[in-house]
Amino acid sequence: MAAIVPIFVPHAGCPCRCVFCNQRAIAGQTERMTPEKAERILAQALAVLPEGSAPQAAFYGGSFTAIPVREQEALLAVTDRYLDKGLLSAVRLSTRPDAIDVETLERLKAHGVRTIELGAQSMDDAVLQRAKRGHTAADTVRAARLIQQADIFLILQVMAGLPGDTRETARRTAEQAAALRPDGVRIYPVAVLPETELYALWRAGDYRPLDVETAAVWCADMLDVFEQARIPVIRVGLNPTEELNSTVAAGAYHPAMGELAYGELWYRRLKQQLETGAQGDFRVPARELSRAIGHKRRNLLRLRREFPQKSITIKSLPQ
After folding, report:
1. Is the pLDDT of residue 25 over 70?
2. Is residue 121 classed as helix, strand or coil in its secondary structure?
3. According to the model, what pLDDT value does residue 51 have?
4. Contact present, 74 and 25 (Cβ < 8 Å)
5. What share of the chain is helix, strand, coil (3-state, %, to 5)?
6. How many Å separate Cα 161 from the centre of its chain?
7. Cα–Cα distance measured from residue 92 to residue 76, given in angstroms and rounded to the nearest whole number
8. 251/254 Cα distance (integer angstroms)
9. Paired residues of 185 in beta bridges
């Protein structure tokens, strides 16, 4: 897969402020993106990437297709130049479901956009309303179909732990997202960030965020759905940065959030095998060994504690 050069446009184009969102904290960027800055970002990235690597440029952090068209075109003119020279392989962007239509997709394709990451967040309208998303689950279904009909790769972004969300509604979100057959998904359990409405609700005691342990359980449910549907999960949890490490106030933020969720899924599978007669000598693919053992040997220790009569080992399959 080609490398990705992120160009952050924090909150640009967003018609409303979702209760959970502080893209400036996530991206570590407060200034408005301009074509000149985008040019510098691409030039600096290409200077350190291997020659001939042709990465993708990615406009992240806002609702790109809701930005005024003139500003979109100015930013895309920068990537056009790099595409024309063969220095970029494609462009990708993130946006919201109610900012997609046929005309927009045709224009984006002409500028080399090959992947759209769609912020679905939830497929439950009550949860979307409480999160102040400003769109419905039906908008996500419509936008997803238009993107696929335009022959553009579709990545869905979903969340777990929004106000009004439950373990059951989060799993249903995964099921309904999987039914759309995206090319990939990202799962983001909610982290409480300062300068958000969610932060104020949390401080007032009106919102109880998921802790890391609970989030791993909910995310494992969602992973199970996507794995059964054979839909790749690109990421679980926010990308850890020094900025976030010092900024997140509460909720499901952990540098190894993905490993915890995958570990929980492996724990369930191994426990089920033990309950149905397995003796405990497990062999797993080498690439899955750390997840099967669990973060800090968590799964191995739990299973040995729960099944003391069995000799439990988890090793990699022979190469």
Report:
1. no
2. strand
3. 82
4. no
5. 45, 15, 35
6. 14
7. 11
8. 9
9. 156, 233
Q: What is the DSSP string of 226-273?
A: HHHTT--EEEESPPP-HHHHTT--EES--TTHHHHHHHHHHHHHHHHH
Question: What does pTM read for this prediction?
Answer: 0.93
Q: Give the range among 6-15, 36-45, 154-163 with minimum mean pLDDT.
A: 6-15
DSSP conformation class of 142: H
In angstroms, rounded to a whole number, what is the distance separating the alpha carbons of residues 21 and 130? 13
Contacts of 192 (CB under 8 A, 6+ apart): 20, 198, 199, 202, 207, 209, 248, 249, 250, 251
Which DSSP state fits 307?
Answer: -
Please give the angle made by the CA atoms of 282, 286 and 287, to the nearest 5 degrees. 125
Tokens describing residue 181: 């057959």
pLDDT at residue 245 above 90? no
Instruction: Taking residues 177-204, report their average pLDDT.
Output: 96
247: its two tokens: 């900024």
Q: Which residues pair with 115 in a beta bridge?
A: 92, 153
Give the span between the Cα atoms of 56 and 85, in whole angstroms: 13
- Reported as a single tens digit per residue, the pLDDT across 119-133 is 999 999 999 999 999
What pLDDT sits at residue 215?
98
Q: What's the mean per-residue pLDDT of the chain?
A: 94
pLDDT value at residue 241: 85
78 near 39, Cβ under 8 Å? yes
Q: Which two tokens stand for residue 220?
A: 């494992």
Those residues whose C-beta lies under 8 Å from the C-beta of residue 64, and which sit 6 or more positions away, are: 9, 12, 13, 72, 93, 94, 95
pLDDT 10s digits, 257-274: 999 999 999 999 999 999
Q: How far apart, in Å, do the first and last CA atoms of the chain sit? A: 25
HSE (CB half, 13 Å, CA atoms) of 197?
11
Residue 257 contacts residue 220 (beta carbons within 8 Å): no
Do strands 184-189 and 233-236 pair parallel, antiparallel, or not at all (unpaired)? parallel
Token pair in block for residue 132:
């102040």
